[in-house]
Amino acid sequence: MPAPFRLTTPAPPDTLTGRSAAVYAQLAGDFGIRRAPTFVVLSPAPDLLAATWAVLRESLLAGRASRTAKELVALGVSQANRCPFCVDAHTVLLHATGDHRLAETVARGDAPADPGHAALLAWGKATRTALGPDAAEAADRPFDAADAPEFIGTALAFHFINRMVSALLTDDMLPAGLQRLRLVRSAGGRALGRTVRRELEPGASLPLLRGVPAGPPPDWAEGAPVGAAFGALRAAAGRGGERLGAQAREAVAAAVDMWDGSHPPLDGGWIAHRTSPLPPAQRPAARLVLLAALAPYRITEADVEAWRAADPDPYDADLVRLIAFGALSAISRIETSIQRPFQRARLTGH
After folding, report:
1. If pLDDT is split at 50, 70 and 90, which confidence band does 176 have?
2. Contact 118, 190 (CB under 8 A)
3. What is the secondary structure of 194-246 as a DSSP string?
4. How far is CA 321 from the centre of its chain?
5. 133 pLDDT higher than 60
6. Which residues carry out catalysis?
7. How far is it, in rounded angstroms, from Cα 233 to Cα 128?
8. What is the Cα 56 distance to its own chain's centre?
9. Span 31-71, pLDDT tens digits
10. Using one digit for the tens of pLDDT, what is the confidence trace for 281-315?
11. Residue 343, C-beta contacts closer than 8 angstroms, at least 6 positions apart
12. CB burial class (10 A; 0-12, 13-18, 19+) of residue 185?
C-alpha cells in the first residue's frame, strides 16, 4: 500500500524505540491504529509526537463527554480547515461510535437532524472563523461548562493536527480515495468500534511526557490532564521558532495577529507582502511557517526545496518543527478567541 507521506520520509514505526515506541504502543491500544499516518509523520520529532498524541487522547478519547459529540467538533474543525484526510478519518470514526446515519449525513455535507449534533458541528467550524464574523457563534458553546476542557481541547488539537496533516500527508487515507466509498467507511468504522467505545482512564498519556519541557497548562483546562498535555505541545511546537531569524519571527507574528480566520487569497500576494522585506536567507522558512499557519494545504515541494537550499541543516525533523511552529502560531490565536467567554464566565461566576 503506498504511503501517504509527502515532503518527509518518516522511519517505520517498528524501527523506533524509547518514547516513540511507547507512543505507538498506546496508540494501538487506545486509538486502534498503531501506524496512524497522522502520528507517524510527526515521528522525526519524538517530543512533538508524544505531546500531540497526549492532547488528542486526553481531549477526544478520554473523559466523560460523548465521543460522538467530540467527533462532531473534530469534523467541524477539519471541514473549516479544508483537511480532507481528517474529514474522512473522523467520518469513519463516527461510524465507529455506532452513529452510522449521522456519519453519512455529515459525509454528504448535510446538517445533522438532531439540533444538538448540528450545533456541535457548527461550533467546531466556527472556532476557525471566531476571529471574524462568526465570533458570536463560537462564543455560544453547545456543551456543559464541566465538559469545556474536553471540547476546547478537541477543537485545538485538530486545529493543530489538520495543519500538520495538510502540509505533510496526501489527501487520501487509502489508495485511490477508497475511504470515500460508503461501504468502506462503514466497514472501517465497524472494525474500530470496540476500541472507540471503550472507556479510557484520563491522564494515562502523561507519563509519555516525562522529560519533555512544558509550559503552564491553559486556564480553559481547569486542571484536567489535557492541560498538561497542551502545555507540552506548546513547548514542543514552539521549538520550531528557533529555526527562524528574529525578523522572520516578527513578520509571522504580525501576520497571524491580523488574521481573521479566512482562507488567504490564491494569488499569493499576501505572503509576498510579509516575506519580501526579510533578508533573503530568512524568506523560505518564513514562507513555510506562514503557510502552515494559514493555508498549509498550499505548501509545495518547491517551497520545501527553497527552504532546504537556504537552511544549513535541512533535516526532516527541522521541517516538521517549522510547520509545527506555524500551526502553533495559528492555534494560539484561535485559543485566545475561544477562551474569552470562558474567562468572562469565571469572572462573573456564570
Report:
1. low
2. no
3. HHHTS---TTTTGGGGTT----PPPGGGTT-HHHHHHHHHHHHHHGGGGGS-H
4. 14
5. no
6. 86
7. 19
8. 9
9. 998 789 999 999 999 999 999 999 999 999 999 999 999 99
10. 999 999 999 999 999 999 999 999 999 999 877 89
11. 219
12. buried
**What's the confidence (pLDDT) of residue 135?**
56
Q: Give the chain's mean pLDDT.
A: 90
Q: Pull the grid cell for residue 34.
A: 498503531
pLDDT at 311: 83
**Residue 320, C-alpha cell as written in the block:** 516538521
Asked if residue 274 has pLDDT above 90, the reply is yes
Supply the angle between the helices 148-168 and 84-96 in degrees, to the nearest 10.
130
**pTM attached to this predicted model:** 0.93
Specify the higher pLDDT residue, 40 or 189: 40
Cα distances (Å, whole numbers) of residue 25 to 18, 29, 35, 51, 53: 11, 7, 10, 15, 12
- Joined together, the cell numbers standing for residue 109 give 455535507
Q: Which amino acid is at 70?
A: K
146-149 long-range contacts, CB within 8 A, separation 24+: 146/64, 147/63, 147/64, 147/65, 148/220, 148/222, 148/342, 149/59, 149/63, 149/220, 149/221, 149/222, 149/224, 149/226, 149/227
Among residues 275, 324, 341, which one has the least CA distance to residue 140?
A: 341
The Cα 84–Cα 182 span in angstroms is 15
- Residues 150 and 154: their CA atoms lie apart, in Å, by 6
Least confident of 15-19, 35-39, 318-322, 335-339: 335-339
Q: In whole angstroms, what is the distance from residue 182 CA to residue 92 CA?
A: 9
Cell 500576494 identifies what position? 269
Task: Residue 129: name the closest of 159, 84, 95 by CA.
Answer: 159
Distance spanning both ends of the chain, measured CA to CA: 52
Give me 61's grid cell: 478519547
CA distances from 126 to 152, 246, 274 (A): 12, 32, 26
* Helix 316-338 vs helix 148-168: crossing angle, to nearest 10: 140
